[in-house]
Amino acid sequence: MVDKDYFKGKKILVVGLGRSGRASSSLLLNLGAKVFITEKDINEKLKEIALQFKSKGVEVELGRHTKDFLKGKDLVVLSPGVDDRNLIVEEAERMGIPIISEIELAFMVCPAKIIAVSGTNGKTTVTSLIGRCLEEANKTVYVCGNIGIPFSSLVLQMKKDDFVSLEISSFQLERIVNFKPYISVLLNFSPDHLDRYRNLEEYLEAKKRLFLNQDSQDFAVLNYDDPYIREIAKIVKAKVVFFRNNDRINQNFSAVEKVAQILGIDKEKIDNVFSNFKGIEHRLEYIGEFKGRIFINDSKATNVESTIWALDNLNPPIILIAGGRNKGLNFEKIKGKILEKVKLMVLIGESKEILRKEFKDIVKIKEADSLKEAVEIAFNQSHPKDTILLSPMCASFDMFANYEERGNIFKQIVKDLTSQNA
Known about the structure:
The protein is α/β, with parallel strands linked by helices. It has helices at about 20-30, 45-55, 85-95, 100-110, 125-135, 170-175, 200-210, 225-230, 250-260, 265-275, 305-310, 335-340, 350-360, 370-380, 405-420, and strands spanning about 10-15, 35-40, 60, 75-80, 100, 115-120, 140-145, 165, 185, 220-225, 240-245, 285-290, 295, 320-325, 340-350, 365, 385-390. The N and C termini lie far apart (about 60 Å).
């Protein structure tokens, strides 16, 4: 933890005006920094946000990243959506300007103990459950990070005896420097984000950064059943605690239980949290039943593994709404599951053509120009006892701001459809 005066008067450029960028900028303003923001996109919403920051003395450029905006800066803070191929990142490195992530920025002023949760799937569930276990034990805990609430938006509220249950993605780990969780949790590892990483090994290296600064005073809670993660255990300096799937509880609950035990939380309190857990919004979320059709919102499924998990947990026949921005994933391993459980796929977004070619020989395909049209097609092609499932296997950014917006719009479309047909 650095002295908060460290930032006073420093000229700091924040790259990105999304959720993380806005939180970083606000934190830096509160710390007395001179803040600059650069955002490559431009629209009416961004213009409105930019005006709010300009009224606080922040210089903002929209619709571009320019080299001139970098001149004289002491530090660059990257939003997780900005990768190393970005012009502003390459130029900052050439000029020797330090670059950190939003997670690193918040860590620099964080007095609380951090429990950091990563993995390809299950992060949100585990992060939320750890938070609930700490609350059950009457601890003050902040649940944030990739879960949708930026770490930097809450960090100034935190005190020494508090806890942070932090969902953290590989993108956020790329630009950490000293970030050091007390407990790190790696749930699983499977192909994802191959539109950002050159190969699976590069993606794995990003995940390994979770343990970069841990030492023997810290803990690493690792999935014994995952061969990639078992290998990582050999290089981790923290105390390794394995979890695994068993007959009593699933892997996510097993990971939470191990973390809670490290924190000294009673088993009775842990079991109470598990028994009252109703699931996470946008992850296999039951929306309702109408005319015998069941509607499920699984918008958070942005990779193949997530959609396989959804299909494993639902009964056929299923009408699957899928598509969005392809992340360079291989769809081969889900084909058997599609053949077994899905009677119709309704495709949306940029990846329609890719998905049609992948699945046209094993399942009936329909295409839609919008999510609303996709829901209407699914409903009109369905029969009683069918499940209509939104589980996209792809990122949302071609059509929506994020998976939450996609899920919320899906829920509203279903609500409108069922009310019109009542």
